[in-house]
Amino acid sequence: MNFRHICTAAMVAKHDLQTAHEALEAGPETQNLRVVFVRHIILEIANIADLATISKGLYKEHRKLGDLHKPISKALEFFKYIRNVYVGHLVPDLTDKTFEWMPQANMVVGGTETDDGIILSWFALETAINTYADDDGHKIFESDTDLSYPPDLERFLNFLGETAIQALAYATQLIEASGNSFDLPDMKADMIELAMKAGDTDFKFLRKGKR
Asked: Global pTM?
């Protein structure tokens, strides 16, 4: 495991998740900001889910980390799915299903006003939530989600908020566990050598999964 990477990524995800969650809890001034914060919270929960997948080797020596992961594992997978089809990449299948499920989307598609985009984004989120299902039905909620129906909206936002809080606790513990698993240079004794190496840095296009 690349402990330095895990620690760094966990720190970034924790910061962004905490900031977005606090902003949403404070009550954004506009619905537009509310949607943006919701999307960013989903993104960072999913990023923490990715880290959980590659960090399981730490659980043996850090039992608390495993204990924090177990109760939110299903929620992490749910938001990872939402990230993959809606936030990170709005996939064509989701677009098609959105217009099937929400035919009123045809009334705003092609519009250039900010509110048109927010409406479509909200429709796509609702559709993505409902597609997280198998032959036995919805995998997280017990019924279809209609975000314009206050009880359904509250159910989703409560689930999002609870998962965010638990993911923050997990990320905090992950930072501590991974941060103690690699050595740091002596910034006083090694600074000249590190500076020389920095000067020789050769930048190349980065590809996912490759060094």
From this structure: 0.90
